[in-house]
Amino acid sequence: MNPTTTTNQAIIGSDFSGISYPTREVLWNIDNVWLMYVMFAVSSVIAGYGIYRRVSLWRRGLPENRFDRPRYRLLMLLKHALGQRRTVREKSAAFFHTFIYTGFIILTVATTVVFLHHDFGLPLMEGDFYLYFQSFIVDVFGALVLVGVGIAAVRRLVLRPKKLVYTDESLLILAMIFLIVLTGFLIEGWRIAVTFDPWGRWSPFGYLVASASLSLMGESIKSLEAMATAHRITWWLHAIIVFGFIAWAPYTKMIHVITGPLNIYTARLEPSGAILKKIDFENPEAPLGVKTLTNFTWKDLVDFDACTECGRCTSVCPANAVGKELSPRDIILDLRNLMHAEGLRIADRGQFWLPIADLKRKNSAINPQSASRIGRNPQSVVGAFPSTSPEALWSCTTCGACMEACPVFIEQMPKIIDMRRYLVMEESDFPDTIQEAVTSLESRGHPFRGTQSTRLDWADGLDVKTLAGARDAEVLFWVGCGGALVERNQKVVRATAQLLEKAGVKFAILGREEKCTGDPARRVGNEFLFERLAKENIDKLNGYDVKKIVTLCPHCFNTIRNEYPQFGGHYEVYHHSEFLVMLVNEGKLKLPADKLENSGLNVTYHDPCYLGRHNGVYDAPRQLVQISSRSFVEMKQNRENGFCCGGGGGMSFVDEPKDKRVNQERARQALVTGADVVAVGCPFCLTMMEDGINARKGERDVRVMDVAELLWQSLI
Amino acid sequence: MNIIICLKQILDPEIPVRDFRIGPDKREAVRGNANLVTNIFCENALETALQLRERTGGKITALAFGAESAEDTLRKALAMKADEAVLVLNDGHPHPDPFTVAQVLAAAVRKIGACDLVMTGRESGDWGSGQTGGLIAEELGLPCISFVDHIEARGEGTDASLFVKRQTDNGWELLNAQPPLVVTITNNEFNVPRIPKTRDIMISARQPITKWTLEEIGVNAAEVRAGQSYYEVVDLAIPAKDVACQFVSGDTLEQKVENLAQRVIEVTRSL
């Protein structure tokens, strides 16, 4: 290509002679530019309407404040929207999404620069900025988008991971993105070729197109004219696809470009253990849980529209992993589709929400089994889909893995609890074994029906004082029902109490005055009972003027620390692992130096969800394990990726089908580490893991022990 | 069909044995750490009544004779959807004998008025004498069918009758009965008490409960307050249970089995 070659064709070879700085002619070779503005206006109106409709759907939700602490929220936005911290956790997605996402940002900036240059007369398309950014960087990032689309296509068409949702929409989105960038390169290349652009090499991929075209078609005027024509046609094609995409995007999962950041900005800021909402029982009109979509808050509805269909929530769900009906992804998507279907009808008939029974005729996702449930219960979202069937809802362990995995901070678990609340409180419809636990909680203050243990059995022979008899105690040791009333766990309570005693901690227990914190009641959806238990306990704790609490059970820990403040209970709460580590670090518990070499234990540690994921306590129990064992080995799924034991969310009171037990899967994962001891920090995990290991261990002698037992063992 | 269902509040019979407490005079169980619950057979009776009402319509009145705390039992009955609740306040002996209780409940039934069916549990989970239902029938001069686990209404108007299924040692008896009558209810798999809906618990907290004193129902209040006119508890004890473990040894499996059998025979003979 020779820039000095001139022709008499006006269109061919721009006049660069008078220009000494790098630039290009904007809208070169394009007539009737007004048409582009018309297209832009039309697509903006269509897109705007799509966004407006979504927003008006969200506004039908109940109120909830998610705009407090704007600084934290902006930080979240920087970290997770702009920074994509969670998105890149997954390798394949990290590449394709980062390429497409960053490419799109750069290309949008570039287009805006052209717009400002052309329509606002800002001379941006000149000089170094034009060369480095507008030509080179934009070209490279455009190419990355193509690579990204390629990876995504291979993933979607060849690898086909189970967690993805396979829709035509997704393929069409990929195809459109691909075509937008491809046509972009074509028009750039032909412009470079035809105008003999002296700075063409700064756009390497456009230059590639130019060189290829010139070598294929020759440099004759005729072929240059052909390229100019192709340029013009492709330019309009490019415009049509771009504006079409803009118009269509808000009606597809591409809305996540808006709802993703919005959802991240309005994400919960508290630990996920504090996520469940209170119900105003004073108000007789207040819905008890979620029956229809309008019982959700606006934030729940935004959640539905924020979903990118990546499927990570379902892929990390322990219940799903063992073959149960539960799929957090499907809950979100089914409810999203329902919301849109209902929303359309609102527009049609000027009506709010129509009975869902009306919808079932049109929705193929509904199976006949659940359809009969709708018949019984015509307005309920519960049972409207397999994903929201009682079977599915009653297999959630509330472990929170779904929420932790979601790149856009969708809150799946609270929605499951909301639907359970409806089932339990409005319909009184729950599994028999949970019913027994709840009845026992109601009349006995603990969930273990038929236990022959009392709250003091574990302390036989120990000099443990109750608060009533030791008002000067500095620390309340909250034993918990799981610790006091289950025989195996009584050993853990004993070890912990002995450790506290050895360290000289002035502690006392509530003894018979202690009642369940209400965690199982709350997780199974009986908020009414939870509130009663919480208030009774808080009255008692405040009556004793309790300041500092050490709990044995992560569930008690979470409820007292994160949920009691909702009801006026404010305490300094420690899990026993945290407290014991403090005692070790302060030198109050000294380990004999020779002990460890002899212990010979190889230990792995299982993260209890309510200690780890829901409260971020990962290190304290590990420290305890490390100081009281010969070697420490991590399981593959650990810390925030920990896999539930299967006992949370009231599930330890449910008889799981033999071939679908979460604890056996976790036991398998623990056994492959080759450890002699599986350490835990939770009485529920302890019994679940012990059952799981016993069902699987074969010849090897593998024990399950609490971190406190391990420490006590290495001390004595 | 108007049903009156008699309910008793008792100490939770499911607490661990170690938590049972007996008063210093060894005549009364004392509350200790036990909670107060509704007697389970009474709840089976209420469930049976609720199911009967679902099929035939009518009104269910829950009736209790007890301390102020028995209000909880009546509130739970209201939450389970009984229509009305009446509490006859017991300000006398904490555990009056069945004769006294039956006298009071019968008087209350008469005061409530129109009633086709009086239902009680088969026995209570605390004293377990199983007398009250029959004695109420005696007081009211009505027939009584005991150990009933299912009731159906048959016919209309003057032909109306009740089809009643009662458990016996050998199976069931199926009876046709003419109301009014008294039945005592035992449990079966179909009358497991329902769990009240939270919404209904919230409503029940605001529902009125009719309260009558002994004087108001026209019984000999002094006699009732004394409580034990027909018999007297002289001693009450918690049965001691000895658990011991023995290992049976033997060189071969056959020997072990033989020794085990021998041991079983010895032990059973000594009993």
If you had to describe this structure to a student in words, what would you say it looks like?
The complex is a heterodimer of chains A (716) and B (271). With 716 residues, chain A is mostly helical. Chain A folds into four domains: 71-262, Fumarate Reductase Cytochrome B subunit (Up-down Bundle), CATH 1.20.950; 289-426, Fumarate Reductase Iron-sulfur Protein, Chain B, domain 2; 437-585, Rossmann fold (3-Layer(aba) Sandwich), CATH 3.40.50; 595-715, Rossmann fold, CATH 3.40.50. Chain A is 53% helix and 4% strand. In chain A, the strands form two sheets. Chain A has a four-stranded parallel β-sheet. In chain A, helix 9 crosses helix 12 and helix 26 runs parallel beside helix 29. Chain B has two domains: 2-226, HUPs (Rossmann fold, 3-Layer(aba) Sandwich), CATH 3.40.50; 241-271. In chain B, strands 11-10-9-12-8-1-6-7-13 form a nine-stranded mixed β-sheet, with helices on both faces. In chain B, strands 2-5 form a two-stranded antiparallel sheet. In chain B, strands 3-4 form a two-stranded antiparallel ribbon. Chain B is an alpha/beta fold and 271 residues long. Chain B has helices at residues 40-56, 71-79, 98-112, 132-140, 198-204, 221-226, 253-270, and strands at 2-7, 9-11, 21-22, 29-30, 36-38, 59-66, 84-89, 117-121, 144-154, 161-167, 172-177, 181-185, 210-212. The longest helix of chain B has 18 residues, at 253-270. Chains A and B meet through helix 17 and helix 18 of A and helix 5 of B.
What is the annotated CATH architecture of the largest domain in chain B?
3-Layer(aba) Sandwich
The total number of structural domains of chain B is 2
Mean pLDDT level of chain B:
92
Oligomeric assembly: heterodimer
**How widely separated are the two ends of chain A?**
86 Å
- Greatest interface: A-B, 26 and 18 residues
Largest sheet of chain A: 4 strands, parallel
Summed up, the domain count of chain A is 4
**Roughly what is the average pLDDT of chain A, rounded to an integer?**
89
Shape of chain B: globular
| Biggest sheet statistics of chain B | 9 strands, mixed
Structural class, from secondary structure content of chain A?
mainly alpha
Radius of gyration of chain B: 22 Å
Strand order of the largest sheet of chain A: 2-1-3-4
What CATH calls the topology of the largest domain in chain B is Rossmann fold
Level-2 CATH architecture of the largest domain in chain A: Up-down Bundle
For the biggest β-sheet of chain B, the strand order reads 11-10-9-12-8-1-6-7-13
Task: Please report the distance between the alpha carbons of the first and last residues of chain B.
Answer: 52 Å
Tally of helical runs of chain A: 29
